[in-house]
Structures are given as C-alpha cells and as structure tokens.
TrEMBL record:
InterPro entries: DIOX_N, IPNS-like_FE2OG_OXY, IPNS-like_sf, Oxoglu/Fe-dep_dioxygenase_dom, Plant_2OG-oxidoreductases
Domain Fe2OG dioxygenase positions: 118-219
Keywords: Iron, Metal-binding, Oxidoreductase
SUPFAM superfamilies, per database record: Clavaminate synthase-like (SSF51197)
Cited PANTHER family: OXOGLUTARATE/IRON-DEPENDENT DIOXYGENASE
Iron is among the record's keywords: yes
PROSITE patterns associated with the record: FE2OG_OXY
Name by which UniProt lists this protein: Fe2OG dioxygenase domain-containing protein
Coiled-coil regions, chain positions: none
Family to which the UniProt record says this protein belongs: Belongs to the iron/ascorbate-dependent oxidoreductase family.
One protein family per Pfam: 2OG-FeII_Oxy
Any GO molecular function: metal ion binding
Length: 268
C-alpha cells in the first residue's frame, strides 16, 4: 500500500507534459472517465476541484487500458495489480456480510447484481497545498455513484468530511493501512434505501498536500440498477426507479456540475 501511494505521488510530481500523456481528454478535447485529469466541464461558471486525479479501470482485468497506466515509476503497474487483487477479497467479504444483514437468501445476493462485467475503477486523488482553502474544495460535495468504495486515506493529513443532518463531520486520518468503506448510491437503490450513500467532500489544506486512493466497485454499464426483487413486497414497495448504469453515470456528472444528487431524481 505504501509503495503504491508513494508511486502515485511520484507520478503526480512529474511535469505536466509527462502526465498529459495519460490524459482523460481524447485529442485534447473529448472527455472520458479514464485517465489523468479533472471532471468534465459542463458549464462556464463551474468551479473545479483543487485536485489532481488519475482514474484507471482495473477490472475486468482483460479490459484494462494499459496505455493510460503510468509507465513511471516502473513499480506502479505491478503494485496496482496486486492492490486490486487484495481489495477484491475485502470487497467480496463486505458485500457478503451486507447481504446477510439484508437477510437475502444467499450471501452473493448483492455480488450477483453486478452483471457479467462489473467494473472497478481506481482513483488516485492528489490535493496540493492550497493558498486559499476558504475559496475552493478538494472535491465538491457528492455521493459515490458505485455500489461500494474502499478508500485508502492519507495517514497524516485530514480532509474528508461527511454530511449528516446538515452538519459536516471531519473524518480523522488513520494509520496502519485502514480502509474506509463507503456505500455508493447504486447500493442505496439495490437495498431499497436500507443502506444510503452519504454526501461527502474534501476540504483543502493551506500547508500540507494530501493523497487518497479510492476503489470504486460498480455494476456492468449495461446492467439496470434497481431494488433487489427479494426485498420488495406489498408492504415494501420500490422506493427508487430503475436506471441503466451507463445512464446513471452520465446523469451523475450532469447533476454533479449543478451541485445536485442524481439519486434524488430516482426517488418514487
Ligand atoms: O480523498 C478522499 O478522502 C475522498 C475521495 C472521494 O470522495 C472520491 O474520490 O470520491
Ligand atoms: Fe467520493
């Protein structure tokens, strides 16, 4: 873990021209999810996040776009490959335990909602020290659109905050490779609202830089995300409309740029 974080820092510290070789803008213009760079620009007055990002599809393994994976430092690709395999085991264990909490008939009741080609993205976030933390956020308020996120936070510098009942709560940094497990809004829909995808943000720091690595576990892009049938009944009607995951992601970015949550539009 330390090696991978150190390798990602090394990448982020390289000159911009080096990093642009892995850009998320095709031909310098058309935005795609994967690669190095920021969010899509949807409106002229959109305030961007104070962060540098590298977003890579790590699963399915045979669909990796290795041309987006930094070749420097040389250890990067091997370390990310190993980290992906370890995190998969953790994610499977957590989702099986959550299926039991929902009292689903089988432990794989959530895992088998992912479809044939569930996808995992690794997102490296690098937040440089910011001279005016009062003016800009590291990441604006959002909920993760995936099923589950495993977040490896900076061991020394705080920044993540979670919204609950109108108050922002600071998440302290933790040592010893602790992972923070976050529910994404896909799981909010699947669980018919039993679990919910909290709104969170990252504040900037005037003196210290910060890094984090999020692993986002999502369903197949062609799969419809919907409440699990077994959880529904006469007394438990569906609370969310279903949506194809591909459209959910597209809409997430539309709403995000307007500072709204896409899931609100799916509530019945
Ligand atoms: O940097 C963090 O602690 C959180 C990152 C995050 O929320 C995200 O990448 O979606
Ligand atoms: Fe997030």
């Amino acid at each position: 873990m330390d090696g991978l974080i150190a390798a990602s820092r090394e990448f982020f510290r390289e000159p911009l021209e080096e990093k642009r070789a892995y850009s998320n803008l095709i031909g310098g213009k058309q935005w795609q999810l994967e690669g190095y760079g920021n969010d899509p620009v949807k409106t002229q007055d959109q305030i961007m996040d104070w962060s540098d990002r590298l977003h890579l599809r790590v699963e399915p393994e045979d669909e990796r776009n290795l041309d987006r994976w930094p070749g420097h430092p040389e250890s990067f690709r091997g370390l990310l490959h190993e980290y992906t395999a370890s995190c998969k085991r953790v994610k499977d264990g957590i989702l099986r335990a959550m299926a039991r909490l929902l009292e689903l008939g089988e432990d794989d009741g959530i895992l088998n909602q992912f479809g044939d080609k569930g996808t995992t993205y690794a997102r490296f976030n690098y937040y440089p020290a910011c001279p005016r933390p009062d003016l800009v956020l590291g990441i604006r308020p959002h909920s993760d659109v995936c099923v589950l996120t495993l977040l490896l936070m900076d061991e020394h510098v705080a920044g993540l905050q979670v919204l609950r009942d109108g108050t922002w709560y600071r998440v302290p940094p933790v040592r010893d490779h602790t992972l923070l497990v976050n529910v994404g809004v896909s799981l909010e829909i699947m669980s018919n609202g039993v679990f919910w995808g909290p709104v969170h943000r990252v504040v900037t720091n005037s003196e210290k830089e910060r890094t984090s690595l999020a692993m986002f576990y999502s369903t197949d892009l062609e799969k419809e995300v919907e409440p699990i049938a077994e959880l529904l009944g006469e007394k438990q009607p569906a609370r969310y409309r279903k949506i194809k995951f591909r459209n959910f992601v597209a809409e997430h970015y539309e709403y995000f740029s307007k500072r709204e949550r896409v899931i609100e539009s799916l509530k019945i």
